[in-house]
Amino acid sequence: MILADNWTDYEVYDTSSGEKLERWGDFLLIRPDPQVIWNTPKTNKGWKNPNAHYHRSSKGGGNWEFFDLPESWTINYKDLTFNLKPFSFKHTGLFPEQAANWDWFSSIIKKEKKKNPDKQIKVLNLFAYTGGATIAAAAAGAAVTHVDASKGMVNWAKENATSSNLSDKPIRWLVDDCKKFVEREIRRGNQYDGIIMDPPSYGRGPKGEIWKIEENIHEFIKLTTKILSKEPLFFLVNSYTTGLAPSVLTYMIETEVGSRFGGHTYSDELGLPVKDNGLVLPCGASGRWERE
Asked: Into which CATH architecture does domain 97-290 fall?
């Protein structure tokens, strides 16, 4: 398992009965988690005194119950700053387990910049959400193209870049359907040294385009390989769908990327350490390819 264990502003304190108790900076949140199927004693005092609690409805969705939580706040990961706020379906605008991936590709970018200081390393971030990967790649020295179908998420990502003092970095912010954007980039002949994709299990594009990960992900990976540079550095696919095992990600990436460029392909679960019991909370999986 790949652990996101370098946080100081975020911790999972405990997990029980379908929920997790987390510290986001100075605030404690209780949120549902489908992986938490165990029912262990809730001994941490935070369970009785959170700043907010998201209650899932038996009819789907749910709602926040607020006790003492600001409308928005920030947390840091190393030199990066993220703007958080509670919004629909339990989210805060950040997936902390992704920090493990930020560290991975940032080290690759920095290593390449050290070898070739004048080289522009172009990275494409698809389904880019609020830009955690975008600002991590930009901070490492890459020129990043950030694509998401939601204008609100792109604006949020811009705010994160500004808060991280990266607004002057070469980042392109695009509100677009990811598949159509890649198809246009193929026609334009544009290429990228690194590709990151964080596709939803299900989603709709700005014009109602339907995305189902089990049906679309392999063909999409195949499509994006057409815009990789001649000597790409890395390729990353995230999956929150429990139906896609890490080995499935490995097979798809190795088939479409590794077979063409060589390098090394591997996949594993992502996890967050749980402070109170020493266990690890699984948080989906990532498939990684790197040239070296």
From this structure: 3-Layer(aba) Sandwich (3.40)
